[in-house]
Write the structure tokens for this entry.
Amino acid sequence: MAWRNADRMNTADDQPIVPDEPDGSGLSRRQVLTGAGTAGLLATVPVLRSTQRAAASTTPAVDGTPEQIHLTLGSDPATSMTVSWASPGPAADARVLLSGPHRRPFEIPAIQRTYTDGLNGETVWTYHAELKHLRPDTEYSYAVTAHNSSAGPFAGTFRTAPKGRAPFRFTSFGDLATPNTNWVLSYGQAAFAVAAVESFSPLFHLLNGDLCYADLNPAVQPEVWRDFGNNNQSSAAFRAWMPVAGNHEIEFGNGPQGFTSYLTRYHLPDNGVPGFRGNWYSFQVANVLFVALQGDEVIYQDAGPLVSGPAPLTPAASTGNPAIDPGTSFYIRGYSGGAQTAWLERTLAAARRNPSIDWIVAQIHEIACSSSSTGNGSDRGIREAWLPLFDQYRVDLVLNGHDHDYERSFPVRGFDHMVGRDAVTGAPVETLRPHPVTTTDTGVFDTSKGTVHLILGGGGTSANLDTYGLDAADGLTQAKVFTKPNHPIPGSAPGTFTRPGADALEDAVWSAKRDTSTGYGIGVFDVDPGGEHDESTSITVRYFHALGADPTNPTTGQKGAPNPNYTLFETVTLIRPRAHKH
Ligand SMILES: [Fe+2]
């Protein structure tokens, strides 16, 4: 039961999702069922896994069959690509066979990266092959295999990015989870969301953090990751999926910030900062610089895993890791000592000196501008650490996850000061409210005048968070804002712990559009660099949503089910002057 309780409580994301049932138990039916189902697995899986591992190590039939195959862009997306995968056991001679139109097929050996999960003691085997010296805008086919694979080679394809000013499409959402509903927060929509990416055939997909919620299933973290990787493979083996780590990538026992599983599985562009490769990074495609940032470094909210008690979280004996006391949360604010923000400033400054870059798109899991009332809301930590840099270097667009909904801000620049209030006392609070440069929703915005923030948190979790704040007194939209840490406090049951919600409120004058019909959807972005003599360049943003997919629609109360049909919710056009004209 210790595991079940830890499951239920150790997410900032899902704490506010389901209000306490009238019986006062504090458990919704969903939570009871999920927790009970998981508890059974939790009790047995670590034992089974350690037995399997022992057997594998003493027999020659180690299974090196590739699975969870996924692509990530190399440092230059026009000329490089990385193929990554995992296998149940150590693979022998793991390799990629690459074929292209202008070269003979040849083999690229993979490097092996492993880790041993700090909670259940299972060793995870991953492989990464960097393909370099490719031709821009060219279709390649590849095969993944190993000497001890029990299946035929896995065949995939990809297209390299164009070089120079060329149109391209990317897609984005966060908070995906897996389709295996045995796992906490997993839901069938996760499979349809992957199919949605494929249906739009983007050059690449941005995955905005909270990938699979393995941390909420602490005895089976590698199994959850496995289901996640195998679900994504039908798209991610054919186009790059570029992730950013969110709060649910933080795992007890897995490294100083808990990101060991994430960082082992993904081979990401090098940021040049020793010790933090993969935590944050950038890459350029055509006239756009993409900047992936790790938000847990700057947010105030305590959003990593939490042992809610009353029992401690006890890792498998094989790990040698001690039990973790109830009330312990994994809080990593400030972990790079400012290295990430210094890197961000260097990267943005260089981008604005580079005449080949018009657009800067940032990807951060947590949110500066969210008015979700059942989700987490906004965080002043992002506002004070990074929004001044976004202003100074005219970042165009910020893509988020974290709250499982869709919300678009007006372009914002600078702050409205001292307009927030304490959520309990009503006393004035500095929330650093982003200042909208317009509050007219024309559908066309010049993002050189202000940064648009877009929440795309409706990947596929079981928890829709599409209920938005309203100030009953004046009828205005309202946002919750974390302005200080919400560390664990004693819960209602003896020996248990919980984390309070955001401490402040503000009128959300920056909020332009919220989708109240469903939390689930995908952003589709078409970049038009403009012709040689054009003054400006544009990105057409379309948001498609999966109506009826909410387990329960918060507005109508209607019960829903996973839905494969994504339909258009809205289109907006972002424009900005070309860099050399600026
Ligand atoms: Fe999150």
